[in-house]
Amino acid sequence: MVGITGPKSTMRADGKQTDIPAGETGAAHEGRPAADLYDRVLTLIAEGPGRRAAMPLPGAEAASRDPVLRNARRQAKLFEELAQARPPRPVAEIEDLIWALWISHPSKAAEALMTRGIEAFADGCLAQARGHFDALVAAWPAWAEAWNKRATLSYVEGRDSDACRDIVLTLEREPRHFGAIAGFGQICLRQARPCEAAIAFRAALALNPHLHGIRALLDEISGGAARMH
User: Could you give the angle at the alpha carbon of 217 between the alpha carbons of 5 and 83, nearest 5°?
Assistant: First the structure.
């Protein structure tokens, strides 16, 4: 997703959103989001710390018996590492593990459809990707990453209102989704709403302080106030 002069975000074949040079997805900007959509996302961002604090950490014994609890425990530990200024392992490795967990699902059919959607997106087959992501959110509506992938696609297509609606649904399910929060900030920049963008970028950096492209955009719109200490 794109800022004023910053990078855009796309998907790798493994599902991780990555930066690409500005100008490579020059969709027309359609569907200016209504004020209530901005307000809803901003409310979810503001509620995020409290919601995250209320997320229980599954015990090791319970996690050893239940794959869903095991993944939840792994994610919690990974986010603890990611929040550190100097994590115990490379940041890219931690981010890759988080993205891998986000695109995983107990259903093999769901994972296969997600893979097809990601591959279609990466190949530039956007209509095909939309069909896959539409099917994902219809069949597995509790899956946060299905909504996030469709939000990313909508952004690339210039459908900012649709992207914001799916970001709401992503954050309702996964309040730690720094990708969705940063993406909302990029939409705000594209829609000339720098104050809302700054709120989103600060929230994303609170979760992942290693988003250097996002920090650069925040520096740009806030006069350098976000520089790392």
Answer: 145
The length of the chain, given as a count of residues: 229
Residue 16: phi, psi to the nearest 5?
-75, 135
Q: Whole-model pTM?
A: 0.86
* pLDDT per residue as tens, the chain (229 positions): 332 223 344 555 445 665 433 333 444 455 678 889 999 999 999 999 999 999 988 888 887 888 888 999 999 999 999 999 999 999 999 999 999 999 999 999 999 999 999 999 999 999 999 999 999 999 999 999 999 999 999 999 999 999 999 999 999 999 999 999 999 999 999 999 999 999 999 999 999 999 999 999 999 998 855 454 4
Residue 173's identity, in one-letter code, is R
DSSP sequence for 96-149:
HHHHHHHT--S-HHHHHHHHHHHHHHHTT-HHHHHHHHHHHHHH-TT-HHHHHH
Domain 8-222 sits in CATH 3.30.70.1070 = no
HEC secondary structure over 1-65? CCCCCCCEEEECCCCCEEEECCCCCCCCCECCCCHHHHHHHHHHHHHHHHHHHCCCCCCHHHHHH
Question: Strands 8-11 and 17-20: what pairing?
Answer: antiparallel
